[in-house]
Amino acid sequence: MKVERLLQISVALLAALGSLFLAFGQGSNSALPLLATLGAFMSVYLTDIKGWITLNRNLANFAALIAVVFSFFDFWDNDDSKLIAIAKLLIYLQVVLLFQPKTTRVYWHLAVLSLLQVVVAAALDFGVTFGLMLIPYMFTALTTLCLFFVYRETLRVDPELRAAHDAVENRPLFSFLAKKQPETNDSTEVSVPTISLSGQLPGNLAAVFSSSKMFVQVLKLGVFTLISTVVLFYCFPRFDQSQFGQGLNGEFGAQTGFKDQISLNDMGNILQSDRFVMRVRLSDLSTETVIDTEYEPYFRGTSLSTYFPNSKTWIVGNLKSYRVSEIKSPPSKTNLVRQQIATNQSIHFDRTNEGVLLFSIYPAYKSRATASDLVDNQTLGIVSMATDAQAQVRQPDQYELLVPWNPFGADGDLMQNRHPLNDRDFRHYLDHDLTQVPLDKEFADTLFHGLTKVANELVADIPGNGNEEPTRLAIAQRLERHFVMDGNYTYSLSVPLHMKNTRLDPIEDFVVNHRTGHCEFFASALAIMLRSQGIPARVVVGYKGGEFNSIGGYYAVKQKHAHAWVECFMPPDQLPLGVDRADYPQGAWMRLDPTPASRPSPNRKDSGTIIDKFLDWFDYVELAWRDYVVGMNSERQEKDIYKPLTDNLVKPLEGWVSREEWVKFFRVKLAAMGIHLSDEWFNGFASIFTMLALLMVVVLFEVMRNLMRRLWPIIKRLFYRWFPSKSHRAGFYFKAEKMLSNAGWQRRDSETPREYIDQVIADCKSRDVGADMMPALTQLIDWYYQIRFGGKTLAPAQQEAIGDHLHAIEVQTIALRRSKPKR
């Protein structure tokens, strides 16, 4: 296959890969990049091979100008679509160039556009797919550059091909309007025909560059480049990414969606996001085996107590005493598991009054690996990383906590209250903040009249014992069952506009009207119903479950796993039957999840098929890419790379440069010889001993040096016999060249070895000298080229003949030294 055809295919493949980068980066808007990928392959056949579709240069420039104008309007249309507009512009320009007759200018422009597409795709996509595609792109780019170099050099040395290339480059705008010249009898064509470039390098070089040998060299270069890139990537010092703020695609700086206040309309958008938030591994304390059950763990974020109807917003509230303390050690007789959480550093966790808000199963206790800067808000049930309120600090890369594991039974829904019941602030928190919505009771009765009516009817239907009022537990369970089982509610991330009554509060409208919504509406409605019955209740937001990865043994928690539920306070005398009240002396918070079970379980999936296993592996690789490539900041580089290298390489050598260690070593050795030294005169004796030891080292070095000088020729011959190299096997030529140089034939820098030998032979013939060495020179230069450029090995008979040829040349050159040939 000719060089230019290989170049055309390689450039088309490079353009297709660049378009695929944009296709993966744009996600749902990938139709145009995919069409451009198809067009890249079609252009090879339709334009380069058949010549059916060829755009004139000037016409192509006009089409490119139109594409720039269209992209300009897209660029200023929406702030969020600027990168998409740039991607479209690159694709338009690429398609225009692909269907032009190929010249060096077109090839170079296509390569540059493909590189720009990769740059734009890097801002649109941080996934592992981008990283994996970089590998074939690198090999394709190296192949393209090598072929482009060969093609350009061919044009430089071939005047006919250069003329054909310039004719294609300078075709008129409308060739069919050009005036045809009259036909002549000679064979010269006056009009410029459509030229198909078919030039090749002279001699056998074209076969070398167009065969597999060049691609083997490109493969070696690509592997070396890939290894060097990985080494430099992890060894080069990192800068703090926090100062750069948000990334081009908005992923850096993205929030988890939970703050100290949330709107009823926020979580619907969050639940549609597939963005990764954190990785959670739950393992047994004794066996370290990974825990994976049908139970969906609740990863608590924060609790909200006050609702503002005007803004449809829940906030934390105004609790005066937060009872913040360090993470405590776990109590005895508690079924605990180890919880290890690794966060996505490209997403900002929100802040609390204490610092960065963290997510965890609650309550949480410290282990040996728990950081000292983690604090626990025991009243609100919030785990945070304590930081200065003005400091711009990200969440930790990973943190570890011990958490209770009660997936089944009444204890699984109970959380111990660690705030004293007799504290005045806590009583105000229960009786005021958690029982009225809003704070004005009369306004609440008007605002949630229908909701309160439904709650009263449900409570009235609770079967009781005589005239006794139902307990808090019975009321809470009945109201929860209303949403989950017998209320005909529908889980949905959005509510059609025709179903809404805008004159009602969204929560009131949800209960008495459409009964369609997501978890935030269910939790809000249940919390207000409980408050209408005098039961303290609060809304809790966090994450529920996750996608369990059987390969890595972790839960991949994403934005779509965001969840809201309810906690109501149960005093010690109203705890469920079967619960040991001694474990809850201050009462307990009971978890209620009113969201219907119709919501699919996000963490369970059948992993028995090959496809599911592949998806688990891909997710695991993507996690490693996210942790060790995208999220490789200065802190992680210090912890995962520099510190292990220091511990394993530097610290073991510290004893060799430590004075104390050497003193101890000498004391022990001398004590074994019966010499016990005191501190007063040990230093002087050690100095004399050191000088004698150094003298012995010098004498030993001289003996070894003289011995190696005598044995080195023997070792060298044995080494070359066992491990022959090309340079050694071809060394006979350089010996011959040195002999000829001593005889007066100096080799010019511009001469190749064959040109040099041919010039020596021609000079010998012209002067009628050196007839005995000319056949030897001819044979040696042929053998040298076979070894040096052909990769061949000489036969034993040929290797033995080399000595005879060199001897003949030596005899002739000694005889000709006095003649001093002139060139």
Characterize the structure shown.
Strands 13-8-3-19-18 form a five-stranded antiparallel β-sheet, covered by helices on one side. Strands 4-17-20-21-14 form a five-stranded antiparallel β-sheet, covered by helices on one side. The chain has a four-stranded antiparallel β-sheet with strand order 7-11-12-10, with no helix packed on it. The protein folds into five domains: 3-172 and 201-235, no CATH class; 254-592, no CATH class; 610-654, no CATH class; 666-721, no CATH class; 726-819. It has 25 helices and 21 strands. It is α+β, with helices and mostly antiparallel strands.
- The proportion of residues forming helix, as a percent range, comes to 40-55%
Class by SSE composition: alpha+beta
Which spans of ≥5 residues are poorly predicted at pLDDT below 50?
A: 173-206, 241-254, 598-606
Hey, roughly how much beta strand do the residues contain? 5-15%
Largest β-sheet summary: 5 strands, antiparallel
* End-to-end separation: 43 Å
Q: What is the domain tally?
A: 5
Mean pLDDT: 79
How many individual helices?
Answer: 25
Query: How are strands sequenced across the largest beta sheet?
Result: 13-8-3-19-18
Shape: flat
**Cα gyration radius (Å):** 41 Å
Number of strands: 21
Identify the notable features of this structure and list them briefly.
5-stranded antiparallel sheet, 21 strands, 25 helices, single chain, 5 domains
Detail the topology: elements first, then pairings.
Elements: H1 3-26, H2 31-49, H3 57-77, H4 82-98, H5 104-124, H6 128-157, H7 159-169, H8 205-210, H9 212-235, E1 254-255, E2 261-263, H10 266-270, E3 276-284, E4 298-304, E5 306-308, E6 313-315, E7 324-326, E8 336-343, E9 347-348, E10 355-358, E11 374-377, E12 382-386, E13 398-404, E14 414-416, H11 424-433, H12 441-447, H13 449-460, H14 472-484, E15 490-491, H15 506-514, E16 516-517, H16 519-532, E17 537-544, E18 547-549, E19 554-558, E20 562-570, E21 588-592, H17 610-630, H18 634-650, H19 659-672, H20 682-722, H21 726-729, H22 731-742, H23 753-767, H24 774-788, H25 796-816
Parallel strand pairs: 1-9, 15-16
Antiparallel strand pairs: 2-6, 3-8, 3-19, 4-17, 5-6, 7-11, 8-13, 10-12, 11-12, 14-21, 17-20, 18-19, 20-21
